[in-house]
């Protein structure tokens, strides 16, 4: 898988840091029933492909950076909130990686182009593992959210859910823009550089 250059990843992170205060102010000023608003493209995504894990980590960092201002956390709340937020993010990331592995295995085992179909028992084993993972993920995520809610008042709990949803939508929006831009770049024919006119002969 092609990876984004290090410079592009750094530019992306810097772009998020520069945009952070504005995003939090927009969140606070937004009506409670208004749909999430996406901003302009951030540097880095259009310069190459990043793995889903790398993208998720960048947006996790963005959420951490924005949370105190967006949720109006007190100095006493913030350290506990930060620890429990990272537990929530780690739980989500870990279980998503496990799910991706199982889905990849199922995709391989059920590929109709296989020369010899695999035994159904192998597929059933992966399906059982997927079902078990989904049940365990729901329990672990519920536990992580409950722990996070313990340090927030009810209003902050609601604001956090909305803010987290906005971050997720912004991530999807930027990914779609980046992919569209990459497709447009790949569709453009390679144009030869313009020829320079020959210099006039010496007099």
Briefly, what is this?
The protein is mainly alpha-helical and 203 residues long. The protein has helices at 6-29, 52-71, 77-109, 120-149, 154-187.
Keywords:
flat, 203 residues, single chain, 0% strand, mainly alpha, disordered N terminus
Question: Could you walk me through the main structural features you see in this protein, from its secondary elements to its overall organization?
Answer:
With 203 residues, the chain is mostly helical. The protein has one domain (6-183). Helix content is 69%, strand content 0%. The protein is built from five helices and no strands. It has helices at 6-29, 52-71, 77-109, 120-149, 154-187. Helix 1 packs parallel to helix 2 and helix 3 (77-109) packs antiparallel against helix 4. The longest helix has 34 residues, at 154-187. The N and C termini lie far apart (57 Å).
Write the layout of secondary structure elements.
Layout: H1 6-29, H2 52-71, H3 77-109, H4 120-149, H5 154-187
The tally of beta strands, per DSSP, is 0
Largest sheet: none
Radius of gyration: 23 Å
User: What is the total domain count?
Assistant: 1
The rough form would be described as flat
State the end-to-end CA separation: 57 Å
Instruction: Output the helix-strand order.
Output: HHHHH
How many alpha or pi helices? 5
